[in-house]
Every structure is written in C-alpha cells, then in structure tokens.
Specification:
The chain is an all-alpha fold. It has a domain of about 50 residues. It is about 65% helix and about 0% strand. Helix 1 crosses helix 3. It is rod-shaped, with a radius of gyration of 24 Å. It starts with 6 loop residues before the first helix and ends in a 6-residue tail after the last helix.
Length: about 90
C-alpha cells in the first residue's frame, strides 16, 4: 500500500537531507527509498524560488473575507444603480 506524504513532511525531509549527513541513513530513518528522496529534492530545488514570488491573490482567510465584503458591497451598489428609477416588486 502506498503511503501519502504531506507537503510539510516532504519539505522537512528534503531540508534535512540538504543540511548534510548520509541520505541513506535519512531515508532509513523515515522508511523512504532514496530514489523517492532524490525525486522530492529535485522538485524542491526546481520550485523553491516560488516562495519569494509575489502571490497575485489573497492568501489569508482575513484577506478572503475582506475581499468578499468588498465584492458584496459592489454587487449591492450595482443592483441599486440598475434598479434606480425602476419599481421594485
């Protein structure tokens, strides 16, 4: 049966390997095949620059809630503009 590894655990193991020491010992300690470790390490090294890139959208729940409120307000204002002068049923 395949084991699922969460991203934080993968990152921690890769960083542990990058800090030095024997990769075989590291893999043995985590019950991981060295080939899998090197695959994770390659992916990590190819994509680690993305940590420093600016994110285009809101990242926190507070940011999302704030954006949601702004959008609700905008929908309300647009609805009032559309209904301005019309009889509301």
């Amino acid at each position: 049966m395949k084991r699922k590894w969460d991203p934080k655990t993968k990152a921690r193991i890769v960083l542990e390997g990058l800090s030095g020491g024997c990769i075989n010992d590291l893999c043995r300690a985590h019950d991981l095949r060295p080939g899998q470790y090197y695959k994770w390490r390659g992916f990590f090294l190819e994509n680690c620059h993305q940590v420093f890139e600016r994110q285009s959208g809101p990242q926190t729940e507070a940011d999302l809630a704030s954006e949601n409120e702004k959008l609700k307000r905008l929908v309300g204002e647009l609805t009032l503009e559309l209904n301005n002068g019309r009889t509301i049923r």
